[in-house]
Specification:
By secondary structure, the chain is of the alpha/beta class. About 55% of the residues lie in helices and about 10% in strands. Among the domains are: about 160 residues, Rossmann fold (3-Layer(aba) Sandwich); about 60 residues, Helicase, Ruva Protein, domain 3 (Orthogonal Bundle); about 100 residues, DnaA, N-terminal domain (GMP Synthetase, Chain A, domain 3, 2-Layer Sandwich). The strands form three sheets. Strands 2-3-4-1-5 form a five-stranded parallel beta sheet, with helices on both faces. It binds zinc ion.
Length: about 600
């Protein structure tokens, strides 16, 4: 390692073929050379370190080469090529406009342009960071650019194309250089490591490539630092330590707690990350990328595009299996919203923590109800000021027949004005109101999509509490016929919820007492549809029959009860299977039935 040469210089490509990650562009340049269609001025634009100057040099060398190879690359052995490679060719002039941006610098260059080449055919003038030229320098350059001598070729390079004045731009052939993909950078680093007998873990190189943000020069320079820091054994842990990158491990742990709905552990991990000196926006941005990577890994084909070592890739694939697409969409959306609001937020840490809490609420773990309830109560002051009233919904395990009585509930989507109307009472001091609106709506919709039954119920409870006291339909008597007609009217109006519609058409209500009716169904699933929609059904019936005391019980017919011993989860999955695509479609296009 003693006489280690900086990789960026040592591994600078010397032919078009060896330029990494710019194939389309180098092919076009090569074709121009093959067809002898050279322009007098080129503009190479693109981010730093992606090969603009390198390509300009290769181009200059190739068009001056005496014996180009069969595939039209520079031979690297002729007199001209050797002079180029030893950086003593007179046919190439480089001007760094960042430090030489005055009129005099340009005049000196223009003087040289007139002198024809001693050997070779072309003189190539590379002006780096050309957008830094002063206006007067630009103007004096313009004349030369308009009428260049036959032997002169200008290659202007810039990271900021928009700063180039149109009169220059219109005289150049423009080549836009891309950021180099992470996998291209990793491949190249692997190659360099092999050549240099450096041991390097793929995960480590992947982190270097990410950190370089598409620039090969930066990647190689980080690589060099890591070589000297690790003595030639580049490990993942050494790289994340040195580069101050947050370990994947943290994101996996966070994902686990979110999937378990475990708010406490989630916040503890966030605290740990903060203590390690990472900033909130970095954490949330990293988490968003992590969810995105999980989404990519849902499909084994796209997972192959995910350039990491196979062990970590398998871990992503395994974790992805535990996440539904809907969950990942929501999670990415939430993390992204947090990221957008981060700068404006007065209490940034609270914003991050609140987002984590919401993420935990996306999925509720039924085995941790105690914990959830505790967390729920922590949340209420932020989310909704009202305390939920005692409600009627009993769990399915408690009784075969369930009674729905006292809650005049939210109406079904189809009868309801858009949910924005409910937003005002959710405002929070610390969070920009903008954030609240989409998130809240989202929470409701994911529940409808069926990630958590109990959350849906909670949501309904909370929504309704405020309406409880000010909504009176009266206590008008009604007959069973009135009831059945209202029941059918509700079913008829359903368009999207086909299964509920079928259930309601199949099973008609029987009046047991003045305001109490019973629906006897055959299966647990039917019972479930009615239970989950009982709130809106009752609200509708109460309004239609002008009676606030209308109460429903649902019963499974004798002998049928044990037929389908499904757990609530199974029933629930069944429901999602039946209607998730419709629900998703509706959510994605923001459709509201009128
Ligand atoms: Zn040559």
């Amino acid at each position: 390692m003693d006489n280690y040469i900086v990789s960026a210089r040592k591994y600078r490509p010397s032919t078009f073929r060896s330029v990494v990650g710019q194939e389309a562009l180098t092919t076009t340049l090569k074709n121009a050379i093959i067809n002898n269609k050279l322009a007098h001025a080129y503009l190479f634009s693109g981010p730093r370190g992606v090969g603009k100057t390198t390509c300009a040099r290769i181009f200059a060398k190739t068009i001056n080469c005496f014996h180009p190879t069969a595939d039209h690359e520079a031979c690297n052995v002729c007199e001209s090529c050797v002079a180029f490679n030893e950086q003593r060719s007179y046919n190439i002039h480089e001007l760094d406009a960042a430090s030489n941006n005055g009129v005099d610098d340009i005049r000196a260059l223009i003087e040289q342009v007139r002198i024809p080449p001693q050997i070779g055919k072309y003189k190539v003038y590379i002006i780096d960071e050309v957008h830094m030229l002063s206006t007067s320098a630009f103007n004096s350059f313009l004349k030369t650019l308009e009428e260049p001598p036959a032997h002169a070729i200008f290659i202007l390079a810039t990271t900021e194309k928009h700063k180039i004045i149109p009169t220059i731009l219109s005289r150049c052939q423009v080549y836009d250089f891309n950021r180099i993909s992470i996998s291209d950078i990793v491949h190249h680093l692997e190659y360099v490591a092999e050549q240099e007998n450096v041991k390097a873990e793929t995960e480590a190189l992947n982190i270097i490539a990410q950190k370089a943000d598409g620039g090969m020069r930066d990647a190689l320079s980080i690589f060099d630092q890591m070589v000297s820091y690790t003595g030639g054994n580049i490990t993942y842990s050494a790289v994340i330590d040195t580069l101050n990158v947050l370990d994947y491990e943290y994101y996996f742990k966070l994902t686990d707690t979110i999937l378990a709905g475990n708010v406490v552990d989630c916040l503890l991990i966030i605290n740990d990350i903060y203590n390690r000196g990472f900033e909130g926006q970095y954490i949330i941005g990293g988490l968003a990328s992590h969810f995105r990577d999980l989404l990519v890994c849902k499909d084994s084909r796209s997972a192959q595009l995910f350039q990491v070592g196979s062990s970590i890739r398998n871990r992503y694939i395994e974790t992805a299996k535990r996440c539904s697409n809907e969950f990942l969409y929501q999670a990415i959306d939430m993390a992204n919203t947090c990221d957008l609001n981060y700068r404006a937020s007065k209490n940034k840490r609270l914003l991050v923590e609140l987002t984590m809490i919401r993420l935990c609420q996306l999925i509720e773990n039924p085995t941790e109800t105690t914990l959830d309830r505790k967390d729920d109560s922590t949340l209420k002051p932020i989310k909704k000021p009202e305390q939920p009233a005692a409600t009627t919904t009993t769990s399915q395990s408690e009784a075969k027949a369930t009674t729905y009585a006292s809650t005049p509930n939210v109406k079904n989507k189809m009868q309801e004005p858009p949910s924005e109307e409910k937003e005002p009472n959710t405002a929070s001091k610390n969070i920009p109101p903008k954030k609240e609106a989409p998130l809240k709506k989202r929470t409701v919709s994911i529940n409808e999509m069926g990630i958590s039954i109990s959350e849906l119920k909670n949501e309904n409870k909370k929504e309704n509490t405020s309406e409880l006291n000010n909504k009176k339909n009266g206590s008008k008597p009604f007959t069973e016929e009135n009831l059945i007609n209202a029941w059918k009217a509700y079913a008829d109006a359903l368009t999207e919820e086909k299964l509920l519609k079928n259930t309601m058409s199949l099973y008609l209500p029987k009046l047991l007492a003045e305001t109490l009716f019973e629906v006897e169904v055959n299966t647990e699933i039917n019972k479930h549809y009615l239970e989950d929609n009982s709130a809106s059904i009752l609200a509708y019936l109460r309004e239609k029959l002008q009676n606030d005391d209308v109460t429903m019980t649902i019963k499974i017919a004798e002998g049928n009860a044990i037929k389908k011993p499904l757990t609530s989860r199974e029933i629930f999955d069944e429901m999602v299977k039946q209607n998730s695509s419709l629900q998703k479609l509706s959510d994605e296009f923001g459709l509201e039935l009128s």
